[in-house]
Amino acid sequence: MISHLPPRFRRERVGFTLIELLVVIAIIAVLIALLLPAVQAAREAARRMQCTNNMKQLGLALHNYLGTNNVLPPAAQGGMSYVYMNYTGYSFLLPYIEQTSAYNTFNFNLVSSAGIQGWSEWGNSTGFALQFGVFLCPSNRATGEVGATTSNGWSVPKAAVTDYLFNGGANRYVVKGFGETGRSGPFGFDTATTLAELSDGTSNTFLMGESVGGNQRNKYYASGSGASRVCLPLANYNTAVPVYYDNLMYMAYGRSRTWTQGGVAARIIGALVGRTVDSVGFPYKLNDCGSESYTDVSIAAPGAPAPAEAQKLTNFRSAHPGTTNFLFGDGGIRAIKDSIAPSVYQGLSTMGGGEVLSSDSY
User: Fold this and answer.
1) CB atoms within 10 A of CB 252
2) What is the pLDDT of residues 124-175, one digit of tens each?
3) Is 188 in contact with 74 (CB distance < 8 Å)?
4) What is the mean pLDDT of the chain?
5) What is the tally of helices (H) and strands (E) in the chain?
6) What is the pLDDT of residues 42-56, one digit of tens each?
């Protein structure tokens, strides 16, 4: 039936105009923009909490090891000239994080004909690839990225890595008996530190700190030392071969290493020990670019004068904006700000430096 009503009384369907639609879309976009940072912040808070829990577990493992053996484990032990070591402290901690079966995959009696580099013997290839989440910061990654074929003929698709390094203190050397021993940290090569040696107090001494690995997080590396130290792109390290920055936690080797990665020669740089000074004792800021590891010494006898050449070691840095988590000797985990004064930072890293520190200063 045809309606005879005037036009003003007829009902007509009216849709959104283009302007109204754009306004609605703009409002939704603003709401999403406001919500997204909150979601990301919540996720980072959860990851940070998991990172803290990881370090708490490692702290319990270190104290249980200490209770069993009366000493803390070495960062690496049993080598020649303190560079070609046999095994690392990370493998010694496995039974104390409920990974006894993984610990049993290592044959600690294996060494080369020269009595060194037991970690690289073929019988330890299975253990070399065993990765556990407790050693990784979730804000950084969930797995390692370095695969390798060693000169002994065995391969791993991905080597086990760690984002948490042992504290070597503010000594220019991490070899036991060398350098400024009063400024040493609790961990080094062939160390066996007792609780009594933490004379600065367990609540004033780092045991471990974050030092995140992986090329995604480490775009730069430290070149030079002292006031001339600069951060250069990782790609500039050695243009002849690819470079991977990572902390291979079972590789007891005190310097960067070249091996085969995917059938191609590659350079692996990283460390087992972190430090608060560089190779000449110059302050290393938190979250500065990382350095390669190079711990050779020319005088092997313990107690002999320190050699003239300095040792390169990496520093502490994190994936958390503005702070880095540290495990203290009392088992506590504290987030240290990047802005911490160098003297306080170094004082917390030494175990017997005698520094007087206030908790208000960090």
Assistant:
1) 28
2) 999 999 999 999 999 999 888 888 777 788 888 899 999 999 999 999 999 8
3) yes
4) 88
5) 5, 14
6) 677 888 899 999 999
Residue 218 in tokens = 């480490």
Cα–Cα distance for residue pair 96/93, rounded to 1 Å:
5
Whole-prediction pTM value?
0.87
Are 290 and 268 within 8 A, CB to CB?
no
CA angle 292, 238, 258 (to 5 degrees): 65
| Most distant CA pair in the chain, distance | 113
* Whether pLDDT at 298 is above 80: no
Q: Which tokens go with 182? A: 């009063």
Residue type, 301: A
Q: What is the dihedral of CA 34, 36, 39, 42, to 10 degrees?
A: -80
What is the C-alpha end-to-end distance of the chain, expressed in Å? 85
Q: Does residue 200 carry a pLDDT above 90?
A: yes
The full set of domain ranges for the chain reads 38-361
pLDDT in tens, 57-81: 999 999 999 999 999 999 999 877 7
Are 83 and 175 in contact by the 8 Å Cβ rule? The answer is no
Tokens matching residue 230: 């600069």
- Output the 3-class SS for 29-65: HHHHHHHHHHHHHHHHHHHHHHHHHHHHHHHHHHHHH
* H or E, element range at 260: strand 257-261
Please state the length of the chain: 362
Phi, psi (degrees; rounded to nearest 5) at 288: -70, 165
